[in-house]
Amino acid sequence: MDCRLRMISLTIAAVCLAALPVHAQSAADSFTQGKALLAEGQLQPALQAFAAAVRADRNNQEYMQQYALLRQIIDLRARLEGERDAQRWEYVARALHSYYFSQAMYPMALELSQQMSARLKDSTSALLVAETALAMNKNDVAAEALSALEESQQSTSSRALLGVALAREGKLAEAKKIAQGLELSTEEQMGVLYSAARLQSVVGDTSAAMATLTKCFESTPPSRLEGLKQYARQCADFGTIASTPAFAQVLQTGSKIAESKCSGGSGCANCPMRGNCQQPQK
Amino acid sequence: MSLQHTRRGIQTVMLAITLVGVFVLHGNCERWCPFGGVEALGTYIAEGNMICSLGVSNFFILAGVLLATLLLRRAFCGYLCPIGTLSEWLQALGRRLGLPTLTVPPRADRALALAKYVLLAVILYFTWQAGELIFRGFDPCYALISRHGPDITSWAYVSAAAVAVASLVMMVPFCRWFCPLAAVLNPFSRFALARVKRDPQTCTNCRQCAKACPMQIEVDRLQEVTAARCVSCLNCLDKCRSPRGHALRWGPPEMLGRQWSQAVLVLVLVGCTSAAVAASYWFPMASFVRSSPRPLPAQVAVVELQVDEMTCRGRGNLLYFFLERDDLYQVPGWFRIEAWPGPGYARVRMSYDAGQGSDEAIRKAITEPYFDVGFGWRMSPFRIQGYDPLGLGLP
Question: In this complex, do A95 and B327 lie within 8 Å of one another by their Cβ atoms?
Answer without folding.
Answer: yes
